[in-house]
Amino acid sequence: MNSQRWLSLNFYTFFFTWGIFLPYWTGWLIAEKNLSVSAASMIMGTGMIVRACSTLFLFPLFTRIYSLSVVMKCLAVGSLGVVLLYISFDTYSSLFIITVLFSAVYPNLLPAMESSASVLVSTGKIHYGRSRSWGSLGYTIALLIVGAGTALFQEAAILWLMIIGLVAIVFSQFQAAPVVLHVKAKLINQVDEKGSLNKLFASEGFVIVLLISILLQGSHASYYNYGFVYLQDLGVDSFYIGLILNVAIVCEIVFFTKVDQFFSKMKISTMYSIAAIGSTVRWVMIYLFPNVVVFIFSQALHVLSFGVAHYAFIQYISQKLKPNQIPTAQGMYAAFAMSLSIALLTFLGGFLYEVSPKLSFLGMTLSSVPALLLTLFTMRKYNY
C-alpha cells in the first residue's frame, strides 16, 4: 500500500470514530447514562484535561521510544479495550474513571495521525489535503450512520457504532505502513536539542502560532459538546440532526480536496485572520438567530473556523520545523489546541448553556476575537 493510500485509510477510519465521539458522546452520556448536562460536562471537561496532559507528555515520550507505526497500533488496541468497559458500568464515578482512561489513550491517535501526515509531507511523499479529505469523509459518514442509528435504536446505537469504528481502526493500523514511519533513530524519534519542548517554547514565532491555534480550536467547545443537544432542544429529529451536522463536514471535504491548490502559498497569518473572522461570525449568527435554518447556514463556516485554522498550523510546522520536531509540536497542538482549550471552554459553555443555550455559542467569541487581535498585532513582527 503506497503512502498516500495508507494515510487516507487511516484518516478515514479514525475520523469515522471522531465523528461519533466528538458531537455525540456528551449527548450519549446524558441520554443513555442518565446524567445531567452539568454532570456530563464535568466528565467530558475532565476527560479533555486528561487528554491534554496525555498528548502533551505521553505521546512525545512514546514517539521517542517507539516508531509512530508501533505507537499507533498500541493506541488503537488500547482504545478498543477501554471503550468496551462502558458496556458494564452506569454510575457517575465509574463513568468518570472510564472516560479518564479513554481520554488518556484514544485522543492520542489524532496527533499520531497528524504527525504521520506531517512527516510524509515534509519528506515529499504525499499531498496532505488529499488524504485529510478522506478523514472528513469518514466523519460525515459517521454522522449519517449515527443519525440513522439513533432514529432507529435511540442513543444506545452510539456506543456500538463507536466499538465498530475502533475495530476498523485496529484493522487499518495493521496494514503495511510507510517505511519512514517505522524509523526511530534519525528521522522521528531522535529528539535532539532543537526538538525539545524548551526549544520549541523558546521560538516566539511557534509560541504565537500555537496560541492562536489554541484560541481558534478552543472556540469550538460549545459546538462539539452541545451542538447535538442544542438541535434536540430546537425539536429536530435525531436522523435530521445527523444530516445537519454533516453540512459542516461536506464543506470540509471540499475544502481539504482543494486546499493545497489554493492555500499552500498563502501566508500563515492571512489564513489565521480568515479563520478568526469566520469563527466569530459563526458563533454570533447562532446567538442572534436561534433557529435551525441559520444553524444549517452557519455550518458552512466550519471551513473557516476549523479547516483554515488547522491547515495553517500544519503548513507552519511542515515549513518551519525539522521532521524530528514534528511529533513534539503535534503533541503540543493536540494537548493545548485540541484538548485543554476545548476542555476549559466546555466548562464555560456548560454553565452558559444552562442559562441560555444560544448564550453558550456567543461565549465562544471570547476565544475567537482575541485570536484575530493576536494575529493582527504579531504577523509583521514574526513574519509568519
TrEMBL record:
Gene3D superfamilies: MFS general substrate transporter like domains. SUPFAM superfamilies: MFS general substrate transporter. Residues 7-361 form the Major facilitator superfamily associated domain. It is found in: Cell inner membrane. GO terms for molecular function: lactose binding; lactose:proton symporter activity. One of its GO terms (cellular component) is plasma membrane. InterPro entries: HcaT-like, MFS_assoc_dom, MFS_trans_sf. The keyword Iron-sulfur does not apply. Its main location: membrane. It is a multi-pass membrane protein. Keywords: Cell inner membrane, Cell membrane, Membrane, Transmembrane, Transmembrane helix, Transport. The chain crosses the membrane at residues 12-31, 37-58, 70-89, 95-113, 134-153, 159-181, 201-219, 239-257, 269-289, 295-313, 333-353, 359-379. Pfam families: MFS_1_like (PF12832). It comes from the Bacteria. The keyword DNA repair does not apply. PANTHER family: 3-PHENYLPROPIONIC ACID TRANSPORTER-RELATED, BLL5896 PROTEIN. This is MFS transporter.
